[in-house]
Sequence to fold (88 residues):
Amino acid sequence: MTTILQKLEITTQVTFPRLRELRGKYQITYDAMAKAMGANKQQTAIKRMRDGDFTIDEMVALRDFFNAMGETETITSLFFDWLFTNVK
Fold:
């Protein structure tokens, strides 16, 4: 049986923390992020909340977007590393 605490832990996991960190660091709006990946704001929100999947083209676009600002991100660091850590 799943406890309420277990349910909360599942729903409170931070999705894509590196994307969120960089968005905050550079004060990037969701609109600007959506434009960088060739999507609209609603599509981007769905993907950030894990109700949809980023395409490889969107991943590459966001990696290039942040790297053009001086970061040295990889697709793995932006989209997959958090799946293997306990970031909350």
Q: What stands out?
A: The first helix runs from residue 4 to 11.
